[in-house]
Design a protein that fits this description.
The complex is a heterodimer of chains A (225) and B (448). Chain A contains eight helices and twelve strands. With 225 residues, chain A is an alpha/beta fold. The chains are: A alpha/beta (225), B alpha+beta (448).
Chain lengths: 225, 448
């Protein structure tokens, strides 16, 4: 899951970015609103972690701007402003969640999963697709009831496919959803991970649409006897 | 002693005293009048007796006035005596009731005698040597009159005294009612209430006191508000460094290799340094904020101040690879001042630290002393008008700030300057990029 962090404090931003990466998120971290704004316009993020006290413009102003132009990316405010009216103003301006610093990374990660889950319209924490079960919190995958061991990259790819069950995704789109900008990766990485998923779960789990990209396989439904 | 008791004691002791003085004066006057009246009567009587002498046959046995009739009205004649003698001292005429007046050949005018154990006042009238007339009156008569006068003064007073005292007490209580009203109003306040007391309705004597109290209230309120804001700001500003520490600590826990863990530990160290500095700055600010402007007596040795300040900047100098140059005026002492060197060192340190932090690595920061100013110049980006106006706002840090400052340094600088009758001026340099901070004397008009 690719997320955007807007936090001007160097130490905190670094800690959040590294911590969330270690928890399996793809993270882009920016220290001011306008850089974050440009990033948001150029890459698909599933959620934004937004600090309010930012140099060159308050976080609330950026949030209001994004909502005005119709950007519905879930926004989770992470701030030191704990006053009730600040919390109310944050949520009413369009934030999906409001957290007061300091916060535990595990809780931040859980809230990011919860807001993205709601945004996708999947209320249940465990995703099902035919015989496939995926629990994003536990990073656990079961195929026909049996646990499947996947690496974090393979999991991330599977998650993107499950999140977009009826879409064909180009390699470029997958790339952008999976990787933050600071990651240097080989150009055939997506093919490699698709191959791994087919091998570890089921050959039909990922369907190749020639000339376009990949989609979640119908075989996922066909697992039943 | 309460005001009420004090007033009561003064009035209750004072009223009888003043009355006693008035009565004393009245008695003294009455006595003089009585003496005058009675003396005159005696003299007249003696003259009338003397006038009758030629027609009276005053030979042979001494004549006695006839006994008085049974009905003599309220006359009391025991106290009055008349006697007439011839030249040889033989009694010619005497009244029946009075005391026997002694003959005194030389006497002429008033003489006090002791007759029958009582004091008498006797008026002698001496003729051409052939007769003497004496009219005597017991002093008792005059004293009786005085006593009666005194009694007639005293009685109504004694009867009215309780009424007077009650009236005074009531008047005092009523007069002090506004004081009790104010006391009640203050007593009934909630602990935190510092709202001013209404001055308008209070008596004129109490208005200055109330005004002074209200002034004190408002100063306390301002100080409390100040403290509350500082505490709230501080709590607020501690959240981000704490959040950073927490995040970095969790990164260390999650780290999959030693290298990453070591880096996280370094960042935790940096975070703790930052938190320590923030707390130290908060304490320094709380310290200087709470001080009333003291009377400084020690004259300041700026060399010592700068040594001390730059010693505290050595680590930052190493980290930034920058340098500080200090220049002194060619002659004369720089910025002569009485003050606290420790506080001034804090001021200089904060200015130099800011200059180092906001300048590129390897910069040259200039600390120049003039006869009447201290100037700190850095080659950093300077400040635009909006940033300059926000300087001194607590915890405000300019945008794009890489170095983690507390945002308190300028507040501390301004407060220490204020305590020393100085002010800090922030300008962009006119000789290139960078900020120039000038510490100079505050114009006398704006001093508090």
């Amino acid at each position: 899951m690719r997320i955007l962090i807007v936090e001007d404090d160097a130490l905190l931003g670094d800690g959040l970015a590294r911590g969330l990466r270690a928890l399996g998120f793809a993270v882009d971290w920016f220290r001011d609103g306008s850089a974050a704004d440009q990033a948001l316009a150029n890459a698909p993020y599933e959620a934004i972690v937004l600090d309010l006290s930012l140099p060159g413009g308050d976080g609330m102003d950026w949030l209001a701007r994004w909502r005005r132009r119709g950007d519905a990316t879930p926004v989770l405010i992470l701030t030191a402003r704990d006053a009730l009216d600040a919390r109310i103003a944050g949520l009413d301006t369009g934030a999906d969640d409001y957290l007061i610093k300091p916060v535990e990374l595990a809780e931040l990660a859980a809230r990011l999963r919860a807001t993205t889950r709601r945004a996708r319209g999947r209320p249940e924490p465990v995703w099902r697709h035919g015989a496939l079960e995926y629990d994003p919190a536990a990073k656990a995958v079961r195929w026909r009831g049996e646990a499947v061991e996947l690496t974090s990259r393979e999991l991330a790819l599977l998650e993107v496919l499950l999140a977009n069950p009826r879409r064909v995704l180009s390699k470029q789109q997958l790339f952008e959803k999976l990787y933050a900008w600071d990651h240097a990766i080989e150009s055939n990485a997506i093919e490699v991970y698709v191959h791994h998923l087919r091998r570890k779960i089921d050959p039909g789990i990922v369907r190749t649409v020639r000339g376009v990209g990949y989609a979640l396989g119908a075989a996922a439904d066909g697992g039943k006897p | 002693m309460t005001l009420q008791r004090r007033l009561l004691v003064l009035l209750l002791a004072g009223a009888p005293l003043i009355w006693a003085m008035a009565v004393g004066f009245a008695l003294w006057r009455a006595r003089a009048e009585i003496n005058e009246l009675f003396d005159t009567q005696q003299v007249r009587l003696a003259q009338q007796v003397a006038a009758m002498l030629p027609s009276a046959s005053l030979s042979g046995a001494p004549a006695r006035l006839p006994p008085r009739p049974a009905d003599s009205g309220a006359a009391q004649l025991d106290d009055l005596s008349i006697a007439v003698w011839n030249g040889r001292g033989e009694l010619l005429l005497a009244d029946r009731e009075g005391a026997a007046l002694p003959f005194d050949a030389r006497a002429d005018g008033f003489v006090d005698h002791e007759l029958g154990g009582a004091p008498w006042r006797v008026y002698y009238l001496r003729g051409d040597g052939s007769w003497h007339v004496a009219v005597g009156q017991a002093m008792e008569e005059r004293r009786d009159l005085l006593r009666d006068l005194l009694a007639s003064q005293l009685l109504p007073w004694l009867l009215m005294l309780p009424v007077l005292l009650a009236a005074i007490a009531a008047a005092v209580r009523r007069g002090l009612q506004p004081v009790r009203q104010i006391v009640r109003e203050v007593q009934q306040r909630r602990a935190g209430s510092l709202a001013p007391i209404a001055v308008g309705a209070a008596p004129a004597e109490l208005q200055p006191l109330l005004a002074a109290m209200n002034d004190l209230f408002s100063r306390i309120e301002r100080a409390l508000e100040h403290e509350r804001r500082l505490t709230a700001d501080a709590a607020h500003e501690l959240r981000t460094p704490l959040a950073a520490l927490r995040a970095q600590w969790e990164v260390a826990q999650l780290a999959s290799n030693d290298d990453e863990r070591r880096r996280a530990h370094q960042r935790i160290g940096a975070g703790i340094d930052r938190l320590s500095r923030l707390v130290a700055q908060l304490l320094a600010l709380a310290n200087v904020e709470s001080r009333e402007a003291p009377i400084f007596t020690e004259s300041v040795d700026w060399h010592r101040v700068v040594e001390r300040a730059l010693s505290d900047c050595l680590v930052l100098l190493d980290e930034t690879g920058s340098e500080v140059t200090v220049t002194w005026p060619h002659e004369g002492a720089p910025l002569p001042l009485t003050g606290d060197e420790a506080l001034l060192a804090t001021l200089v340190r904060n200015l130099v630290e800011n200059a180092l932090r906001y300048s590129p690595r390897g910069s040259l920061v200039a600390l120049r002393f003039a006869r009447e100013a201290l100037v700190v110049e850095d080659p950093g980006p300077g400040l635009d008008a909006e940033q300059r106006s926000r300087l001194g706002d607590r915890f405000h840090r300019p945008a794009g700030q890489e170095q983690a400052g507390s945002g308190l340094g300028i507040s501390i600088v301004q407060r220490i300057a204020e305590l020393h009758g100085l002010q800090a001026r922030f300008d962009n340099r006119d000789d290139g990029p960078g900020l120039r901070v000038t510490i100079e004397r505050r114009p006398a008009a704006s001093r508090r």
